[in-house]
Amino acid sequence: MPREVTIGRVAIYATLIVFALIFLTPIYVTIVTSFKSLEELRRGDLLALPARFEYAAWIKAWSTACTGVRCDGLQPFFFNSVKMVIPAVLLSSLLGSINGYVLAQWRFPGADIVFTGLLVGFFIPFQAILLPAAQFLGFFGIANTIGGLILIHVVYGIAFTTMLFRNFYVNIPVELVKAARVDGAGLFMIYRRIFLPLSLPIFMVCIIWQFTQIWNDFLFGVVFSGPAARPVTVGLNNLVNTSEGVKEFNVDMAAALITALPTLLVYILGGRYFVRGLMAGAVKG
Fold this sequence. Notes:
Oligomer: single chain
Mean pLDDT: 88
Distance between the termini: 39 Å
Number of strands: 0
Shape: globular
Number of helices: 13
Order of helices and strands: HHHHHHHHHHHHH
Radius of gyration: 24 Å
């Protein structure tokens, strides 16, 4: 049965379309600009489609654009981010899962205090931990390395991942744990045989969230990385702020899209599981 067309419904759809256009227009401009030549950009038709799709800006942004004194494009920064984000996401997700499992199903004296402390850590601003984190990394000799960045992201992400998994596991009946204990299963056996197989939706939520946060991070990357360990966000900043002669906006736009593509790909591939995980109780308190 067709829905009745009312003034209120038309107003709602019109408002949604306006906000969608406001949100999508910069993305559209970024994409079409990256495929235009400099001569076409100088003509000033910002919203027009490229007369001919040019890939030179993408090739230059990836392999030959200057980022300070170096002129090898975003490629080395991109692979630094790949080396950093994969172990950081996996470790923070796994540790958050184990912490959440213990806090939700193996209640011990002071469990609520520990969980509250982790939540407080989640709300501490990044800027407040820069100095102690730098001293910590320097003490252990991993400052300005990819390993140091991985450790920082894992430590800072544990509070959030623990909260996600704890809120998910607290809805699983405790009778499952009691029955398994009667059969002789221990702490890690129960986790591996019962909780881990049930955790795919919440793992997808955690992985997508952590990947986005770590890949897009700029502050930790610029503070804790050396010249050989800088992530792609720092490389993008250096590329955009390095100019010789004419400013090449098409190269800047292509570099921005190269930086954003991995997170977009993760959302496209895992978006369905992300929504399913949220609906399964990820955000329940």
